Amino acid sequence: MYSSVIGGIILDPCMMVIRIDDHMVHRGHGVFDTATISEGCLYELDAHLDRLLVSASKAKIDTPYPRETLRSILIQTTAASGCKTGSIKYWLTAGPGDFLLSPKGCSGPAFYAIVTAATTSASSLQSREGVKAITTSVPMKHPFFAGMKSVNYLPNVLAVMEAEERGAYSSVWIDEEGYVAEGPTMNVAFITKYGELVLPAFDKILSGCTAKRLLALAPKLVESGLLKSVKAARISADEARQCTEMMFLASGLPVMPVLSGTVSLLVMDKLAK
């Protein structure tokens, strides 16, 4: 773990703590991001770090260090951990200070990072054969908050819990206009019956780094004739129902197929509410 409050990398788990008066803890005034560790290297670190800084700007959180220093800290923390496969999660917060709403009493912004070894929430069988998804009854976040990775993840937690209670792997939000949005910690993608790869537009949801990477790489499949086109666009629940394939996209997956037939259930479940 790294802590700017302590001022260095921490290897003793007993010392990996955050002060309870940090405004991230008791007011949710913090943002975060995550980068995958593969073969000891950080994948797409710059994209994830840039997104962290965008989130921090929206949340009016300053950074205690310049971008390049933050980047160096993340690389050094990963190296010190010895982790070869896993992830590094990192936060910018308003910092410790008091228990009021305003950050005026904080000593200054804080930066934390922690490395975790790879764990999977899906079995290899699920990764091969697919998972079940449902639509969630939990209200969507407002686009302003959905577009930043803040630590306020209660809607996401409740959406996942609802899915698990109903025997599903995860859930998907459908917005008030009937368009497919995103999952609790992942984007979604569809392949239409015409061979088009479609990802829901990012205007109301988080622009996932894995989703954007897919949009950058998938045109090669168009060139080879495996896909007709690739785009990010609004896709209605009815259009999703007619798609032949659906998948979840996230750094930790990175691609998870959704079981055949779930798309129809996904839409009908929403329309029945």
CATH top level of the largest domain? Answer: Alpha Beta
Estimated structural class = alpha+beta
Helix content: 25-40%
Radius of gyration from CA coordinates: 20 Å
How would you sum up the major sheet?
Answer: 6 strands, antiparallel
CATH topology assignment of the largest domain: D-amino Acid Aminotransferase, Chain A, domain 2
Number of helices: 10
* Integer average pLDDT: 92
How are the strands of the biggest sheet laid out side by side?
A: 2-1-6-5-3-4
Overall form: globular
Low-confidence stretches: 267-273
Our count of domains comes out at 2
Distance between the termini: 44 Å
What percent of residues are in strands? Answer: 15-25%
So, CATH architecture of the largest domain?
A: Alpha-Beta Barrel
Cofactor: pyridoxal 5'-phosphate
GO molecular function, one term: catalytic activity
Family: Belongs to the class-IV pyridoxal-phosphate-dependent aminotransferase family.
Keywords: Pyridoxal phosphate
Short description:
This protein is an alpha+beta fold. The protein folds into two domains: 2-117, D-amino Acid Aminotransferase, Chain A, domain 1; 124-271, D-amino Acid Aminotransferase, Chain A, domain 2 (Alpha-Beta Barrel). The protein has helices at residues 23-27, 45-58, 67-81, 124-129, 143-146, 154-165, 209-217, 219-223, 237-241, 262-271, and strands spanning 2-3, 8-9, 30-38, 41-43, 85-93, 110-117, 133-135, 170-172, 187-191, 196-200, 229-233, 245-249, 255-257.
